[in-house]
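quick one, 455 residues, struct below
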Amino acid sequence: MKKQSILTLAGLLFASSLLAQSWTPLFDGKSLNGWKRLAGTAEYTVEDGAIVGTNVPNSGNTFLVTEKTYGNFILELDVKIMDTTSNSGVQVRSHYDPAGHQGKGLVYGCQYEIDPSARRWSGGIYDEGRRDWLYPGSLNPKAQDAFKVGEYNHIRIECIGNEMKTWVNDKAVAYLVDTVDHNGFIGLQVHAVSKPGLAGRKVYFKNIRIQTEGLQSKAFPSGIYVVDNIPNHLTAYEKNSGWKLLFDGKKAEQWVGAYKDKFPDTGWKVADGMISVHETAGKEGGTGGDIVTKDVYKAFDLSFEFLLTPGANSGVKYFVKLAPEEKTTGSAIGLEYQILDDTLHPDAKLGRDGDRTLASLYDLIKANKQKRFIHPMGQWNTGRIIVYPNNHVEHYLNGVKVLEYQRGSQAYRNLVAISKYKIWHNFGEAAEGHLLLQDHGNDVSYRSIKVRRLN
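---
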């Protein structure tokens, strides 16, 4: 028994040793060997076992990047940032264009955001120098307080296949599915400063280590929103969290014409992974009319991508009842997430205080959005509508919350009373209803329409 116990202990120690060896340090704690500076002139030094980045005036974003490139890996490190006016990030699978940024050099690729500002988007995913925000921290509000200013925070980044997942202090933050990059360098960012008085701010990195073999993904708690950039696709994680596709890119089996028993023969088309409504001179109702889900929904999380054409108008409606007394000659009645080209369509200037603009609750509440979060014409935008079981409602545009309200509250009813919907009894307060894609007579396409029922 004694010999067996010794052998067992030896085996455990050996297994433990193998596990420890699976991590490779990227920083020796003493020098910057294996790293090089790119793009800017910020300073990187080694102090007390940490890489210290210090920002300087008149420099763009500066990066200290690995000389090696990495594909699939798990990266862990500790990061400290001293005040809320600073910003930083960790590049993964990234690249360098020496001719970019007007010859100053451009680092581009996915960045793990380090954001101690009031916005609190640490752990979100930004596409540096290229596509802007891919996973804003606002998509996971429960993780927004995980990062602590003025102390070391433990960061974990998993890049395995098409998936990238992030953690802050063991709190799961972001889940991105993306096919753009599969290999590249790892980098530490010192952000540019907007005012000379902000120069001299420091960010600290230590305990930087990586795994590249035998990767075991850490469990991700259910219910976190996934940004999936593969059209009409659900991950196994999403399916297990209750998400379902309302359009698979091939058939519109879950949709019928409003007040009809089948999908419209004209006006709508399913092709090239899209469900599209076609131009009929901007006439509300078009030739095909609105389409609605066969199922009805109470509390739900709905996500969809939409592609506008110049001057186009459409909408995604919810709590559509399709009652005979609510049938109209135009579009069916329901709460509407407005889909609109704010620049060219005249409806953007109608209504009250901009409440008919993109992502607004049509004719009721204006979407509070920044231009930088609106993707330009010809690119897909992502809309999202969450209706919680307590009737609290949120609209998102490209991952950023743009409005919220309480369905059925007195404040909500006051807005209805001064809107075009005042003629409808208890407008928008149905216990359940269909989801609707609007035919407003313009070319608009939809894809990646997915929904999760909330309890």
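The chain has two domains: 22-211, 232-453.
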